Automatic annotation (TrEMBL):
This is Serum paraoxonase/arylesterase family protein. Keywords: Signal. PANTHER family: PARAOXONASE, PARAOXONASE-RELATED. Residues 1-23 form the signal peptide.
Length: 418
């Protein structure tokens, strides 16, 4: 997420026009009353300093990467995915979080002066340098051509979002800007799935940027106008965001497609439908850059950026690998809370793995709520990853669960049993 707007309106629309409304109301959290997380004795919990409004989180090369706003005010002044266009944007930054130190470090920018309005990111290996990565990051910039006297609409948008590509040497304290990527097909970018420095996919979470039709997109599951586009980069050196790129539509037909993650095999893509409360497993084709959806896993809340935990301590009889997906307990309240820096929004984090007792050939899924809170410890969860902990003899398997939130003043880390 974000990308949700007037959900109260949405719920009304759903209730009045839709037959099977129970599932929609469940996803919106209408029946839910979140309570504060309860920690067991000895259950270690951290609020990580300097992780303000980090929407996305990726575990790569024994560290965590996040893109954060850095001050608690900026999202409430400018954030196109929530249809907030009040103040000129400020700059956030890319952070590296140590999964053992629990410390977050801002990376300094080289050759980039912002603004940087953060949202989804992805991290991918530099094929030419073993100890370096490329980082793709959505940047929701204002549209320099916006005519404030002009009509409100798709022809005169307030935002001109783009994708930034950075290069980072692991262990260094900087990220170097490589180039920007801008194209009319990248309209409401949310999250990124990178195949390498020259190839990535990006979700457009909505077709409409504002207005009544956007509410319909939020409300009506049949309004499947969001899409995923593929970008091929021919020239890493271009100083013009629009040149040296090829952009094509890779997938249409999912409702409110939102988060993207890497799955269990190198070519498995995980896609979340935020308001559809569904995780899709899919396969992008390297040959034609379209995406085939393989199966879907419905969950009982909105679903944001998905990740896959590959259990580093798996044994044939105990493999804790699974998908993680973060969501909000009562998105129905978001239209009232999203303008309030002090509001709470409860969170739900799902851990989804194959049901070990189900019969061969028909994968069913065990869906466990691995963490819940009412917004006391973390607000508006938008990404979750697990980092394994070496199992001790005769103890149950544990891991660190890291959760970020797009309106949360801090990310958290909590020890969980798998
Ligand atoms: C910044 O970009 C300029 C021109 O593209 C280049 O000459 C310079 O080396 C770059 N600086 C860094 C720190 O990479
Ligand atoms: C793209 O390639 C995949 C196989 O890699 C194939 O299944 C799919 O039908 C192709 N799609 C199009 C539109 O050609
Ligand atoms: C696993 O599958 C079995 C058989 O289909 C079912 O009875 C059980 O409830 C499932 N367990 C979970 C945790 O979903
Ligand atoms: C683990 O449990 C087994 C069986 O209960 C016991 O024999 C063994 O001593 C225990 N090991 C440790 C390290 O506690």
């Amino acid at each position: 997420m974000p990308g949700l707007f007037s959900l109260a309106v949405a719920a009304l629309l759903v209730a009045s026009f839709y037959g099977p409304v129970y599932r929609e109301l469940t996803i919106l959290g209408v029946f839910r009353k979140p309570s504060p997380a309860v920690f067991a004795e000895n259950q270690v919990f951290y609020k990580i300093e300097d992780t303000v409004h980090c929407e996305d989180l990726h575990h790569y090369a024994d560290r965590l990467f996040a893109a954060c706003e850095d001050t608690p005010e900026t999202r409430f002044g400018w954030f196109p995915p929530m249809v907030i266009f009040k103040e000129p944007p400020q700059s956030g930054s890319i952070h590296v979080i140590g999964p053992k130190t629990m410390k977050s470090t801002r990376l300094g920018f080289e050759n980039f002066s912002g603004p940087f309005v953060t949202h989804g990111i992805d991290v991918t290996q530099d094929p030419d340098q073993k100890d370096a990565v490329y980082i793709f990051a959505v940047n929701h910039l204002p549209n320099p051509g916006y005519d404030s006297a002009g009509a409100n609409g798709e022809d005169n948008p307030k935002a001109r979002s783009q994708v930034e590509l950075f290069h980072h040497v692991l262990g260094s304290s900087t990220v170097k800007h490589v180039r920007s990527i801008r194209h009319p097909l990248i309209k409401t970018p949310n999250d990124i799935y990178a195949e390498g420095p020259f190839s990535f996919y990006v979700t457009n979470d909505h077709y409409y940027r504002e207005g009544a039709k956007r509410h319909v997109e939020d409300a009506v599951p049949a309004a499947k106008w969001s899409n995923i586009v593929h970008v091929h980069i021919g020239d890493l050196e271009s100083t013009d965001g629009q040149s040296g790129i090829d952009v094509t539509v890779a997938l249409t037909g999912l409702h409110n497609n939102n988060g993207l993650g890497h799955g269990q095999s190198p070519d498995e893509m995980v896609i979340s439908s935020a308001l559809g409360g569904t995780l899709y497993r899919a396969k992008p084709s390297r040959a034609n850059h379209t995406i085939s959806v393989l199966d879907s896993i419905p969950l009982d809340s909105v679903t944001d950026n998905p990740s896959y935990f590959k259990d580093p301590y798996a044994t044939p009889s105990n493999d804790a690998s699974g998908y993680l997906v973060a969501g909000i307990a009562r998105p129905i309240d978001l239209p009232f809370t999203f303008t309030d820096p002090t509001a709470k929004d409860g969170v739900m984090v799902w851990y989804v793995r194959p049901n070990s007792t189900s019969v061969e050939g028909s994968t069913t899924w065990e869906k466990r709520l691995i963490f819940e809170d009412d917004g006391t410890h973390i607000r508006t969860a938008s990404a979750a990853v697990l980092v394994g902990i070496k199992p001790q003899p005769n103890e149950s398997k544990k891991a660190w669960l890291f959760v970020t939130g797009f309106l949360s003043e801090s990310a958290i880390a909590v020890q969980v049993e798998l």
